[in-house]
């Protein structure tokens, strides 16, 4: 068996290289303002990225579109023309290579424990592409809330729950959105690791260029190899955020550019809007009664960059300032987004981050609280004056360690003897054939995650099988407003240079004027 594993990784690299070549030579999409087809240049005027927490694709869509439909729970009945996804085939449900078979989690089991999603352990779980060590290395059983306190009423404290999944009776809204709009079944975390890793890749395609400021010599659990510039593999606190002091033993600053810098250069309106940003001590409880602070500093990627940080959480001077340069420096409370929308001034690019209890992160949030946030947000956006020209992307920061059977292509090799293990001890990928080399501890692509496009410009009931990652969202925004690429920063390349395109989920014939709306009930996830 040992002899076969490098061949599995090698095949993944070959696939990745083919995709990399396509990404580098392909034209800008028809929905980009700078694209090659005039008909699509003015269609998208607003991009809203809803960035949720800690879900693998199989955890939410493994049996899509087939739900169990027990009595008394919201039913899901798929359309007859629903396309198939790369989900949990019967053999994976009954003869899984892991130590346990995946089991359906009921709606009554929505609040679960957090799993292990550390950079090293996620690689060990993938086991050279065999995807068979999740119980040993990804199971966590951490039943604490966002404040580190015991979380009440959490289901599943054993290791086998890491294999389990929800279906359309619990994540009902997401399944209904997939039926009406478009989703991907081949989108991955850009590199292995927890929340901060995914958040940085979302806005910069880059986790390298980190300098630890609380511990100048570096914190190996968060920023290994910190000689000059290290690479983030954990959840250190942002250096430019008062709410991170003194909560984090390690805080880091990031060098280089992020998408906010590019948007500022172009004079575009934009903002990151996060629940609890105005008052970082505000709390809410989830459906099980577990209380947690709304604002989690390491979920706010722009606070790691001095150029785009709002260290004191200063409020905008007025509603008119939202999205523009000003006191808040484009970093806002979630309530500021709705103030701008209600005033008819939705920014061109908006990143929405739910308060912790609604962000979907196991341990302190859950799919039902998450559904309430998603549905209320999307219902309101669909009723806004800008809906016809808006594209909403739902994406996730990491997998939480939840099982997923799909093997990602390896496009970024790494050989950290202490923290890499995808292809054996101290090795991720092939250093002779991977697209990106040079910066350690950026092993990727990582675990597969959900990705949905909700827009009147999206294809209907469509599943995109092309390979994408978190930085595909970055490159889509860059192309839509001809921002250019971040490119080489801090001694390593941004993944935006090789990211697969999201354009396959758009309908080239759509003009946005048909409404393209699907109003759902936030409790049941079913159409109203």
Short description:
With 528 residues, the chain is α/β, with parallel strands linked by helices.
Describe this structure as you would to a colleague:
With 528 residues, the chain is α/β, with parallel strands linked by helices. It has one domain (5-80, 100-257, 277-307, 348-505): Alkaline Phosphatase, subunit A (3-Layer(aba) Sandwich). It has eleven helices and 18 strands. The strands form five sheets. The chain has an eight-stranded mixed β-sheet, with helices on both faces. The protein has a four-stranded mixed β-sheet with strand order 5-4-7-6, with no helix packed on it. A hairpin with a 2-residue loop joins β17 and β18. α7 (195-204) packs parallel to α11. The longest helix is centred in the N-terminal third of the chain and has 21 residues, at 5-25. It starts with a helix and ends in a 35-residue tail after the last strand. The model is unreliable at 1-30 and 32-41 (pLDDT under 50).
In what range is the share of β-strand residues?
5-15%
Radius of gyration: 21 Å
* Secondary-structure arrangement, i.e. CATH architecture: 3-Layer(aba) Sandwich
Largest β-sheet summary: 8 strands, mixed
Tell me the CATH superfamily: Alkaline Phosphatase, subunit A
Task: Tell me the span between the first and last alpha carbons.
Answer: 53 Å
Order of adjacent strands in the largest pleated sheet: 11-8-12-1-13-14-2-15
Weakly predicted, low-confidence segments: 1-30, 32-41
Number of domains: 1
Report the total helices: 11
CATH class category name: Alpha Beta
CATH topology: Alkaline Phosphatase, subunit A
Indicate the overall shape. globular
Total DSSP E strands: 18
């Amino acid at each position: 068996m040992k002899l076969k594993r490098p061949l599995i990784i090698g095949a993944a690299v070959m696939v990745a290289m083919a995709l990399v070549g396509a990404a580098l030579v392909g034209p800008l999409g028809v929905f980009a303002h700078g694209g090659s087809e005039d008909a699509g240049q003015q269609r998208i005027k607003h991009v809203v990225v809803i960035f949720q927490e800690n879900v693998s694709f199989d955890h939410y869509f493994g049996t899509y579109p087939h739900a169990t439909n027990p009595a008394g729970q919201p039913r899901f009945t798929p359309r007859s023309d629903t396309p198939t996804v790369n989900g949990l085939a019967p053999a994976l449900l009954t003869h899984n290579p892991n130590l346990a078979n995946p089991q359906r989690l009921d709606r009554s089991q929505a609040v679960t424990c957090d799993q292990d999603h550390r950079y090293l352990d996620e690689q060990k779980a993938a086991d050279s592409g065999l995807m068979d060590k999740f119980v040993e290395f990804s199971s966590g059983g951490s039943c604490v809330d966002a404040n580190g306190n015991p979380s009440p009423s959490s289901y599943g404290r054993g290791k086998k729950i890491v294999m389990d999944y929800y279906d359309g009776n619990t994540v009902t809204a997401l399944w209904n959105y997939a039926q009406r709009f478009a989703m991907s079944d081949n989108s991955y975390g850009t590199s292995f690791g927890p929340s901060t890793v995914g958040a940085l890749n979302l806005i910069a395609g880059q986790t390298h260029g980190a300098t630890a400021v609380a511990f100048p010599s570096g914190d190996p659990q968060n920023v290994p190899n910190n000689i000059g510039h290290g690479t983030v593999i954990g959840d250190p606190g942002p250096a430019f955020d008062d709410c991170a002091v003194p909560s984090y033993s390690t805080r880091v600053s990031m060098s280089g550019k992020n998408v906010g810098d590019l948007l500022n250069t172009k004079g575009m309106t934009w903002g990151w809007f996060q629940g609890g940003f105005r008052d970082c001590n505000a709390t809410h409880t989830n459906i099980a009664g577990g209380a947690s602070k709304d604002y989690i500093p390491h979920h706010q990627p722009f606070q790691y960059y001095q150029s785009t940080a709002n260290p004191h959480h200063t409020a905008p001077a007025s509603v008119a300032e939202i999205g523009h340069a000003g006191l808040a420096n484009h970093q806002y409370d979630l309530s500021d987004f709705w103030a701008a929308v209600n005033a008819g001034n939705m920014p061109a690019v908006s990143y929405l981050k739910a308060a912790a209890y609604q962000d979907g992160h196991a341990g302190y949030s859950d799919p039902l609280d998450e559904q309430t946030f998603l549905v209320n947000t999307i219902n309101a956006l669909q009723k806004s004056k800008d809906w016809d020209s808006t594209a909403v992307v739902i994406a996730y920061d990491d997998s939480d360690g939840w099982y997923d059977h799909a093997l990602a292509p390896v496009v970024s090799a790494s050989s950290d003897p202490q923290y890499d293990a995808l292809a054996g001890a101290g090795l991720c990928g092939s250093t002779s054939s991977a697209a990106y080399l040079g910066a350690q501890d950026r092993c990727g692509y990582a675990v597969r995650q959900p990705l949905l496009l909700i827009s009147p410009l999206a294809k209907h009931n469509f599943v995109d099988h092309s390979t994408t990652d978190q930085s595909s969202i970055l490159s889509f925004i860059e192309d839509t407003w001809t921002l250019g690429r971040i490119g080489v920063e801090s001694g390593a390349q941004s993944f935006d240079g090789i990211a697969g395109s999201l354009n396959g989920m758009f309908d080239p014939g759509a003009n946005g004027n048909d409404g393209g709306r699907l109003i759902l009930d936030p409790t049941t996830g079913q159409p109203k």
